[in-house]
């Protein structure tokens, strides 16, 4: 399998919301941005020399509207199937995220009032339904695997390439939605912070070199590992005081990895 190149596709701002292009033998797209972003994404694919019709797969990291909002549109524009985890089927089938959002801090509390985060996207049914275990991307032209990484949402997934690049969705972010590049931080929301941290640490144990995130620029794995150790202490103290709010069930009748 040829080397896989990870190319950021900014959807909002310079790095505030990112999709990603994985370039191997064939191209794969990870995430689809906010509603109405399909054309912007395909135009950026073309600027990198990729014919949108050559895309072999669209992988969705989770069921938040800034990541799945243009999935149906992007599928029409590329003809590529959508891969997504079964535990987030509710948002995909309804076009609406599970609410309320559960903020991780002051920024999340402020952003939860943003009407755009409560908008309705075009609904869709995934073509490749992910469940337990990893999914090999070799047949789609990329050396790597999709890993379930529940916590941010029940159906969150990440892509780890054979070259050590982790496309991490919202497992981790840059501070202030990417305004402080290179500094690890929680994204504005997590359904279950401890479960998300466990998923992050499990992926770090696999030895990635860099983490490509939904909000911000790539993060150094060693720096994220140090952050995760400190975050574990912080969350453990909060849990002991009963100050961690979590969502442990899905709303679509499917078993939740968080429950």
TrEMBL record:
Region Disordered, annotated ranges: 240-259
Pfam families from the UniProt entry: Lactamase_B
CDD domains, alphabetized: yflN-like_MBL-fold
Record InterPro entries: Metallo-B-lactamas, NDM-1-like, RibonucZ/Hydroxyglut_hydro
Top-rank taxon: Bacteria
Every Metallo-beta-lactamase domain range: 16-215
Name of the protein: MBL fold metallo-hydrolase
Protein's organism: Kitasatospora terrestris
């Amino acid at each position: 399998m040829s080397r896989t190149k990870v190319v950021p596709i900014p959807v909002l701002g310079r790095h505030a919301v990112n999709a990603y292009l994985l370039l191997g033998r064939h191209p794969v797209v990870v995430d689809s941005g906010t509603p109405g972003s399909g054309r912007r994404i395909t135009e950026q694919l073309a600027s990198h020399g990729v014919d949108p019709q050559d895309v072999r797969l669209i992988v969705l990291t989770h069921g938040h509207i800034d990541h799945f909002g243009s999935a149906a549109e992007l599928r029409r524009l590329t003809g590529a199937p959508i891969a997504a985890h079964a535990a987030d089927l509710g948002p995909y089938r309804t076009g609406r995220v599970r609410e309320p959002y559960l903020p991780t801090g002051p920024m999340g509390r402020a952003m939860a009032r943003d009407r755009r985060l409560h908008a309705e996207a075009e609904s869709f049914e995934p073509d490749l339904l992910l469940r337990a275990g990893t999914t090999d991307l070799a047949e789609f032209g990329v050396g790597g695997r999709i890993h379930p990484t529940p916590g941010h949402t029940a159906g969150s997934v990440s892509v780890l390439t054979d070259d050590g690049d982790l496309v991490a969705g919202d497992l981790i972010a840059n501070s202030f939605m990417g305004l402080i590049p290179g500094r690890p931080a929680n994204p504005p929301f997590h359904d279950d912070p401890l479960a998300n941290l466990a998923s992050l640490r499990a992926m770090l144990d696999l030895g990635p070199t860099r983490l490509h995130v939904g909000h911000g620029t790539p993060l150094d794995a060693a720096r994220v590992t140090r952050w995760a150790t400190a975050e574990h202490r912080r969350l453990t103290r909060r849990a002991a005081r009963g100050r961690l709010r979590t969502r442990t069930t899905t709303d679509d009748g499917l078993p939740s990895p968080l429950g």
